[in-house]
Design a protein that fits this description.
The structure is a homodimer of 766-residue chains. With 766 residues, chain A is mainly alpha-helical. Among the domains of chain A are: 405 residues, no CATH class; 85 residues, no CATH class. Chain A is built from 33 helices and 8 strands. The first copy, chain A, has a 4-stranded antiparallel β-sheet with strand order 2-5-1-6. In chain A, a hairpin with a 6-residue loop joins strand 7 and strand 8. Chain A starts with a helix and ends in a 5-residue tail after the last helix. Chains A and B meet through helix 11, helix 14, helix 15, helix 29 and helix 30 of A and helix 11, helix 14, helix 15, helix 29 and helix 30 of B.
Chain lengths: 766, 766
């Protein structure tokens, strides 16, 4: 058991590292050369240009104005200054609601902490269990932390009633705050949707599993079907093409282009020597050749192939996928079509709201229904395996990645490895590194699994990955830390234990792990969040790109990587703090201040990042909130079961019926929230659609909606230019190829986040 | 352990009693005076009239034609003769699909039984476990039945592989048949819906939780809302009135009327003495008065009160409930409105398909949203209590209902009770009778619970009751028989056991209970079903009514009680047979023939009853099928877990991973069925609506839909006549009272089951 001084040492180390990160950030962000790393959002919005070029050259790269260094923390008020409505306009509703989760943490835990400190700390501290125990068993020492925890209350004591009452109070408080927050977020979402300007997805429905018809092409079939069944509403539609191969070619070409630029830059700097490369894998071996000529030829070759593929996709009826984006004359028509069933066979003509164009995951649009079901089954089994057996492949890799096998595979490394210090280093760190790498790669694995499951919107994919990751963290971090052993062993143990014994096992270990989790909060929460603001990886990558690849301003724009809120990773991790706070609120309330500091600090950091850095790839209008709410309630229920188990080992078995009421009420509250709010996040009400339609008809009677929607749902590889996809002409009803070069319409689609006037928003990016 | 001869004795007793029921039925149904008991369906359809009155008077009551008695079973071919399409037209789709469940039982279990007899019986019989055991332990005797069961296979034998393979085969066969059947029923339903003639519910949506508006009446508010948000589709609407008090008065009046008729009849038969009654409760005590005068006066008094209440309901805005039946110009419009969300607030303006007019449960239309949630929570807890603690109140009643307390409450019975034989009779039978009464009353209790939960359609209420009853039977009959002790004790035991031990506990007991369940099948299944056809209770009641209440032909029509398929009772009981069949198919296959006989026999009986007797109160177009499918799959999963537990005690623990795959696959199959078929039972596709609309517009361009829908959704108490509800007139937009007397439109609503020509259908009712 850790003493208070252990904790304070750990606290000071972590606070110091967090502080150092902040100092580094404060210095680095003032350098003009890092401007695009720390303020990319403003560049994307076109409000910030490159730093002014008057003055000496050095000023381009380093800030020499000493006065600015004095106010190290002057970004803090700037981050807090922007009011919420403006934040929504600036960064989108997703981001604005996301940081509300941290605020929610404060709203829940500050009052709980105050109450717990006022009531439970004195009750625990004067419990005197350890005094008794240390008298009887002299060889056991207890940490001071434990004096403040429920462990200090002797078994069957009347004092435990205080914990039960507090469990009720905390549950009701949490539910009350959650209800209020759900209501606020729902209103924000509805207000946001209502005030949104015209967007293609408001008029569009995604139709999947279009049945094939022997007499018509798929496109004709779609048109006829909707003309008949939505007679006054159908406007136009866009077929989906299987352009996955083409997309791969475009990517490949871009990569070759980057290499060409790299070698051209190299040649320009040292014109004496023409750069060479090798033809083999990654330019590592093979014949030596002139790099610039080689890549120019390769690009030309690929360009030709690409044109051929492009024409094949457009001409070949096989490339048409049985899915289409169908657009309607009004939002009302689209809302009706998205929410209703079209035909008798519920697996044909599946309609759903079209995702925002940026949000479409094109690769999955062609998966047939039965296959989808099989994929989901396989992925469920795989997820189960991943969660409960994740240590097995790691162990295998760790066994393989030992000294002997490395020497076998790469014999030329043998003399190096055999040196004593290197050997011990590898033996000591390699297994840990393998685990670390796996944990870093895990979200990507989960994302791939969600992709295999076949969701068609990036937002759906992320929501599913987040769900999987949350489950993983719950089992392997929370349960895994409390009950020692791998998840598979735990599962075995749990299966061999009675249902009522499981919360007991967990409950008994919980108070003993308090110090471990306090350290975890400081390392992962405090220092981890501070590292986020420093953006070390994007900083390095940007400067590397800047040196090797950037020639024009456009290149520099592309080298800039604003990143985005990694929702499917950060949210599940964040949920762990809610879980810990709720579990320990009655058991070891001294943990609560650490959590409160985390929430406050993270709120500040992420608010800054949202304003100045992140550029979200799509806007889902906070559609993730039901998940957030559900996961906090899962945490609440786990905390209730834990307390129940803990108290039943404290010889307070009579408390069980009193405490079992709490999870039942919590579950009911979850159901209630679901009924009350969730449809606002899943459906689009007809009344709102009608209001927007009516308003639009009054203000813009001349609007040519068809022209507006023309290219919205074109596969991105067709957007770049050259050839445009065939299009149905309503008057003539025949296909014709428009092969003229067009400028990209990319810009017009974003549409949601309009730049506000420079003079107003400039103040937030100091 | 029972021997084969025990079983055959039981079988012959039960077969004999079933046979006797059939003989009694065969004789009774031939008597003309019972004609209305055994063939009410034909009277209701107006095809059958009273038996011809030519010949002597005795022929009215007794059939003297000896030739007809010879062919005792001539109703059997008649019951099987009617082809299914005609059956659907005659009795409705619900009934026709219901008897398909019995056929489904045959389809599943006949091949399973053949395979099990061919493979498992020899494997078990030559297993020789009992030979070994009886050599070592001479004092244990085994029943012959057990030689055919898995118990005869020694532990860790290779023979168990046969059972595992068979479990796979049976699972796949069951799922295959279920899939095929689901597909057929779905097609039948869609075909039925498509071929249905015009019905008011096709055009109508039930709107609940209409928000109040300070400026408008509820009715105006409803009209304006739908005129705005469904502009081309809204036709008219009908407000719902809280006429529960009025309905009670109407019932009361009918009751008084019956008494009046009873005394008038009495007086007519014995004109010398005017009948008297007493004013007190049930005419048991109080002042003696002239009965005919008394009831005439009472009826007059009540009639006046009824008129006053009728006027109050119509005039009082407080009597208007915030719910309405909104009708649309087309089926398409109604389908759109029913499937979409209307406003931002998902608990306002809730729309759903209107139930068929006969199907509406009027009392529940006014319950607000939050209250509904609370009611559901309370009822869930109550159901849990009822299932797991149902023995507690029974035990209390049994304790109270002993000799001493009866003597205390009813002291005048004391001399009677104290007689030895009476005393022992009461002591021996009373507790059993209390339990029996409870089990008889249970479906009614469950129905009341469902009513409290607030469902607005009788079909929903029945579906929920069936679900509750199924759970009850599963826990208290199946588990309760296998693991001795009450459900509460089981729950306690299970909670204290490990998760993997529960299937083991159940699995071990399963083979030992085979003989018990064989007897159960014969008593409850064979004899019970035979008793169904005899209709003893309706027979007695009809003749009593006929003697005391019938004066005119109309009275005789009313005295006739055709009854209906008691779906919420019979279906869950039926599911028990599927469960038993699936559980014992691998364990003790010798049980299967008993189940097959049950299914075949019940199919025959219920087909006869549906053709000749039952008159369904509403038509849900087989909307119960998803429940049937789900429950059979639950049974399948229970059977898989049971086998898993059983084999793990047979020292074949390696089988666990092989067998755990089955429930996972079964669960996946359930999900697959749900996705694939369920929406056909819950939603109405737009394409079908459009086809019907287009056809109707072409064939009946002059149809006055508004007039057609006018009275469809009027509360039944307003249907009888006298005063008609206020109605919105589209042209004038003002309320006016149409107080003219009208004939009831009840007849025109049924609409679904049109009588076929007498000469054709006559042949089925021999």
């Amino acid at each position: 058991m850790a003493t208070l001084s252990d904790i304070s040492v750990s606290a000071s180390i972590n606070s110091l590292s967090a502080f150092l990160f902040l100092v580094a950030f404060a210095i680095l962000r003032l350098q003009p050369m890092n401007d695009r790393v720390y303020f990319p959002k403003w560049y994307i919005k076109g409000i910030r240009e490159n730093p002014s070029t008057s003055g000496p050259l050095v000023k381009h790269f380093v800030n020499l104005d000493v006065r600015m260094y004095i106010r190290l923390l002057n970004w803090v008020p700037a981050a807090l200054k922007m009011p919420e409505p403006e934040l929504i306009q600036h960064a989108g509703l997703d981001s604005a609601v996301y940081i509300r989760i941290y605020l929610l943490g404060l709203k829940i835990f500050v009052p709980i902490a105050l109450l717990a400190f006022a009531v439970l700390l004195p009750v625990n501290y004067t419990g005197g269990n350890f005094n008794i125990m240390s008298l009887t068993m002299k060889d056991i020492t207890f940490g001071e932390i434990d004096k403040f925890s429920i462990s200090n209350v002797p078994p069957a004591s009347k004092r435990l009633a205080a914990h039960i009452v507090m469990a009720y109070v905390f549950t009701f408080w949490t539910c009350y705050i959650l209800y209020k927050e759900y209501k606020i977020v729902t209103d924000m979402r509805l207000h946001f949707l209502a005030s949104q300007s015209r967007r293609p997805d408001q008029f569009t429905v995604l139709v999947r599993n279009v049945p094939s018809d022997p007499d018509e092409s798929v496109s004709e079939h779609v048109e006829h079907f909707f003309r008949v069944n939505h007679p006054h509403q159908y406007l136009t539609h866009k077929m989906v093409y299987n352009a996955n191969k083409l997309a791969k070619m475009v990517d490949q070409k871009k990569d070759l282009h980057n290499r060409l630029i790299y070698y051209t830059n190299k040649y320009e700097r040292k014109p004496k020597k023409r750069p060479t490369t090798k033809t083999g894998f990654w330019g590592l071996w093979g014949k030596k050749i002139d790099a610039i000529n080689y890549y120019t030829e390769e690009i030309e070759k690929l360009s030709k192939e690409e044109v051929a593929e492009r024409e094949r996709v457009i001409g070949d009826p096989e490339a048409v996928v049985p899915a289409a984006f169908v657009s309607f004359r009004s939002r009302w028509g689209a809302a009706v079509c998205a929410q209703t069933q079209q035909t008798r066979n519920p697996i044909r003509w599946l309609t759903a709201w079209a995702p925002e164009p940026r949000d479409v995951y094109w690769n999955n649009l062609a998966i047939p229904f039965v296959e989808l079901n099989v994929r989901k089954l396989v992925m469920t089994v795989a997820l189960f395996g991943l969660i409960f057996c994740f240590m097995i492949p790691i162990a295998i890799v760790q066994t393989l990645a030992n000294i002997e096998s490395i020497e076998k595979v790469l014999p030329f490394l043998k003399p190096l490895i055999d040196k004593g210090s290197v050997k011990s280093f590898i033996q000591g760190f390699l297994p840990g590194i393998v685990l670390k790498i796996f944990l870093l790669v895990l979200p990507m694995i989960l994302m791939e699994m969600s992709k295999i499951e076949g969701y068609v919107a990036v937002s759906d994919l992320e929501a599913r990955s987040a769900g999987k990751y949350h489950l993983f963290l719950l089992v392997n971090v929370f349960l895994g830390s409390i009950v020692a052993g791998t998840a598979l062993q735990q599962l075995k143990e749990f299966l061999n234990k009675s249902a009522s014994e499981i919360p007991r096992t967990v409950g008994v270990s919980v108070p003993m792990k308090a110090t471990f989790f306090i350290t975890y909060i400081m390392v992962d929460g405090w220092a981890g969040v501070a590292a986020e603001i420093l953006r070390l990886v994007p900083l390095v990558i940007y400067h590397l790109k800047n040196i090797f690849l950037v020639k024009t301003e456009k290149d520099r724009d592309e080298a800039m990587d604003p990143g985005s809120l990694l929702w499917p990773i950060t949210e599940p991790r964040l949920q762990l703090y809610f879980l810990l706070g709720l579990v320990y609120s009655t058991v070891t309330p001294i943990l609560l201040p650490f959590i409160i500091i985390f929430f406050a600090f993270a709120y500040l950091i992420f608010r800054h990042q949202i304003i100045n850095v992140y550029n979200q790839k799509y806007e889902s209008a906070a559609s993730f909130w039901p998940d957030v709410n559900r996961r906090i309630l899962i945490g609440l229920m786990i905390s209730q079961f834990t307390l129940l188990g803990l108290l039943s080992t404290k010889q307070a078995a009579n408390s069980t019926p009193v405490l079992i009421v709490l999870p039942i009420l919590t579950f009911w509250f979850h159901k209630f929230c679901k009924n009350r709010f969730e449809s606002a996040f899943r459906k689009f009400p007809l009344q709102d659609a009608m209001i927007k339609d009516t308003l639009e008809r009054a203000t813009e009677p001349q609007l040519d909606l068809k022209a507006y929607l023309k290219d919205a749902y074109t596969h991105p590889v067709f957007k770049g230019g050259q050839v445009e996809l065939m299009d149905i002409d309503e008057e003539e009803d025949e296909y014709h190829l428009v092969a003229t070069k067009r400028t990209s319409r990319k810009g017009s689609q974003a549409g949601t986040t309009e730049g506000s006037p420079e003079d107003r928003t400039g103040i937030y990016a100091v």
